[in-house]
Amino acid sequence: MPKLWDDTIDAHRRAVREAVLDAAAALVAAHGLHGLTMSRVAEAAGIGRATLYKYFPDVGSILRAWHERHVEAHLAALAALAAGPGDVGERLTAVLTAYAGIEGARRDGDELHAGAHARGARERLRAFLRDLLAEGAAAGRVRTDVPPEELSAYCLHALSAAGELAPEAAGRLVAVVAAGLGVTH
Amino acid sequence: MPKLWDDTIDAHRRAVREAVLDAAAALVAAHGLHGLTMSRVAEAAGIGRATLYKYFPDVGSILRAWHERHVEAHLAALAALAAGPGDVGERLTAVLTAYAGIEGARRDGDELHAGAHARGARERLRAFLRDLLAEGAAAGRVRTDVPPEELSAYCLHALSAAGELAPEAAGRLVAVVAAGLGVTH
């Protein structure tokens, strides 16, 4: 088959896959994880049940793929903030604020976050934050008496408190965490 | 039965119970949670298997009682530090340091901490820390722009980072957390 045809098929497959994940996300948002079936996902995605099975063997694999996409989107958004305009202090605060928002949106019993993919994502997030903190320390904007690796673990744990605080507390939590880091403006 | 006799029986029952929990703790420390049986606990505690069953119906109930005792001992130790000598800044730092040590000793897969008792203990710990932080804020030793309730959640989450850091990092973590709280000395 010519290359163009391959590309077209690839694009179609990606579009179907995205539609399935969007449909699953909408169903979970509306009805929770329970009651999610292959038939309902197929119907919501506007494809046949047999087609859906060509993409995903079961509901669990759809949820894992959806969660993976979700986590990748978060990592990409945080990386964009880290690489964005502003000096390192401002970029660091932007990343911490965004992460507090992500943690604030998480709820208890979010069992998907216990998966291997989530652990891998957490390691990447931690490494990425460590590099940003090292950059801040080199620029004299972050404390230098504690290794960036440890500060990174501190940030992620401290910001997870957003999950049990009211949404309006997130900004205050970020200010407290930033004070711990010795972030200067 | 006379009161004295009741007291004697109570003391005996408590002593047996303590011996069972000590034996279970020693077995878990030596061999891990797996392989813990009623027979082994009875043998290690120096009592008969039939006697052990009068105290605990199964291994799970022994582990829960052991964990409950463990958590209560931690809460009592933290409360003693909070009520101890020194001004509120020193007492707060002592409590944070002790809690970092407790979190540092915890390991992943510590499923006992997911129980209802652990959740209740966490709530009590949080309330107790909130009161200590409020006392510190009133004394001008802790920041006052963030409610003590939120600072308490921040502390517990941030200090849980000790569980994934090297033991020698605990002191640095406490210093970072204290800086976030604006603790002045």
TrEMBL record, chains A, B:
Coiled-coil stretches are none
Q: Where is the HTH tetR-type domain?
A: 14-74
- What are the UniProt keywords, alphabetically? DNA-binding, Transcription, Transcription regulation
Pfam families the UniProt entry points to: TetR_C_43, TetR_N
Q: Which residues bind DNA?
A: 37-56
Q: This chain belongs to which protein, by name?
A: HTH tetR-type domain-containing protein
Q: What's the source species for this entry?
A: Nonomuraea longicatena
